[in-house]
Amino acid sequence: MKTNEDFMKNGISIIPSVLSIDLISKLKCELLQATEKNLRSNSDRFDKGMVHNCMIHGENLLKLLDHPILYKYVSIFLDNSSIVYAYQSSTLFPKSKNYGSRIHVDCPRFIENYITNIGVIFPLDDFNIDNGATLYLPGSHLKKNIPDENTFYKNAKQVVCKKGDMIIFNARLVHAAGENITNQGRYALTINFCRSYMRQRFDFPRLVPEEMISQLGNIGKQFLGMNVRVPTSLKEFYLPEEIRLYKSGQG
Ligand SMILES: O=C(O)CCC(=O)C(=O)O
Question: Domain 2-243 class?
Answer without folding.
Answer: mainly beta
